[in-house]
Inverse folding.
């Protein structure tokens, strides 16, 4: 039984040796250039849309318009800095900054 345990331990140790003796760089390791590459900053544009109801239907006017934009559009537009303007006939004009269709400013 001792011989089998020693043999098994030896096999495991010898199977690890070639990986430690190898001086090659791993091919999947990210390079420093990729790790610290600048990201493209999203470019925001102002967008307007009219919705039914008052500016305080869902809390504050800013939150109401933010939630309206999220519900009516793709979340990838990432609305921010929303404003609400009351309109006649129980309508509200929402204006938010959203990511433009041309997306990003390249650094």
């Amino acid at each position: 039984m001792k011989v089998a345990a020693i043999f098994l331990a030896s096999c495991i140790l010898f199977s690890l040796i070639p990986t430690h003796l190898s001086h090659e760089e791993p091919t999947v390791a990210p390079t420093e250039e990729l790790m610290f590459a600048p990201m493209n900053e999203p470019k925001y544009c102002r967008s307007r849309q009219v919705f039914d109801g008052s500016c305080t239907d869902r809390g504050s006017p800013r939150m109401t318009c933010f939630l309206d934009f999220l519900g009516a559009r793709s979340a990838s537009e990432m609305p921010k800095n929303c404003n609400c303007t009351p309109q006649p006939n129980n309508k509200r004009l929402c204006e938010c900054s959203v990511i433009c269709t041309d997306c990003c400013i390249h650094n």
Observations:
- DSSP finds three helices and three strands in the chain.
